[in-house]
Amino acid sequence: MATAEVSWLRRSAVPERSHEAMRSVDRVAAILNFLGEGSPQPIWQIAAETGLPRPTVFRLVKALARQGFVMRDDGVGYRLGPRLMFLAMKSSGAVDLKSAARPVMEWLARETGETTALQLRVGSSRVCVELVESNQMVRRVIEVNTPMPVHCGASGKALLAWLPEGRVAELIGKGPLQRFTEHTITDPHELMAELRAVRKVGYAISFGERMGDGSAIAAPILSSTGEVLGAVAVLAPPHRTPRQKLIGWAPVLQRAAREIAAAHGAVPLG
Questions:
Q1: Domain-by-domain residue ranges, the chain?
Q2: Helix H segments across the chain?
Q3: How far apart are CA 29 and CA 262, in angstroms?
Q4: C-beta neighbour count of 253 within 10 angstroms
Q5: Is 168 exposed, middle or buried (0-12, 13-18, 19+ CB in 10 A)?
Q6: Is the Cα torsion angle 45, 51, 54, 55 positive or negative in sign?
Q7: How do residues 28-40 score in pLDDT, each as one tens digit?
Q8: Which of 146, 155, 153, 117 minimizes the C-alpha distance to 134?
Q9: What is the arithmetic mean of pLDDT over 241-252?
Q10: CATH tag for 89-264 (out of 2.60.40.10, 3.90.220.20, 2.60.120.470, 3.30.450.40)
Q11: Which residues pair with 221 in a beta bridge?
């Protein structure tokens, strides 16, 4: 074969490899975007929603899992993984927010005697990125850096309530929303009404919306422009936190949210 012909074949192979690489990137993005919408999903559901062949989805999901970008939820399917959560937090400034929040969360835990949590919204999920556990024998503890649904729980409602309603509608979809307990709000219209009430009072409370043995109160951490940076929450067992006790913590919780925002440099503390 002539030298000129060999050179042409080499050059023509480069665009083909580049095109295949772009197709792989698009496929990975489709999978991650779908998993970012909410609950864990099995391979067949990912394939059906993305329009990709099931063997392709299986191969890509396994590769993503090896790198920590997705993780298997036993008995259910796959969800976004801790490595992706970490990268999202770094790009959003969440690492600095954690540093700003930790001392305030420790103070809040002492004030209430309960566990405190810092949560962020990542797509249609929420993630606890920092936790200060209560010293009590019986206490609430949740997983750190693990995606949870944003439509249920006090922190999820605090993260959603200050967003434009159109954006909330995009995140939660037409419903019904996934049910976790008998107290989970599954109707998007009912959730919208709940979010308006949350915004009016400045905090959100929940009783067993995601887990039957949990109650919480959460407030948004807001920038000077009203951007939701995250939510700070007090988590407690429901047997010792009736509604009025949770509401009684609202002033110290809201103070904690303001002080975290100020320490982060998002707002002046006045």
A1: 3-80, 89-264
A2: 3-35, 43-50, 54-66, 82-92, 94-112, 154-161, 165-172, 188-201, 243-248, 250-264
A3: 35
A4: 25
A5: buried
A6: negative
A7: 888 888 887 666 7
A8: 117
A9: 92
A10: 3.30.450.40
A11: 230
Cβ-contact 75, 86 below 8 angstroms = no
Residue 41 pairs with which residues in a beta bridge? Answer: 78
Mean pLDDT over residues 19-48, rounded? 83
- What pLDDT sits at residue 219? 97
Q: How far apart are CA 31 and CA 88, in angstroms?
A: 16
pLDDT at 86: 62
CATH topology of domain 3-80: Arc Repressor Mutant, subunit A (1.10.10)
Report the alpha-carbon distance of residue 171 to residue 160 in Å, rounded: 9
* Average confidence (pLDDT) over 186-198: 94
- The rounded Cα 192 to chain-centroid distance in angstroms is 18
The average confidence (pLDDT) of the chain is 84
Name, in order, each residue with C-beta under 8 angstroms of 190's C-beta and a sequence gap of 6 or more: none
Q: Return the SS3 of 234.
A: strand
Tokens of 50: 């993305």
Show the tokens assigned to 76.
Answer: 């259910």
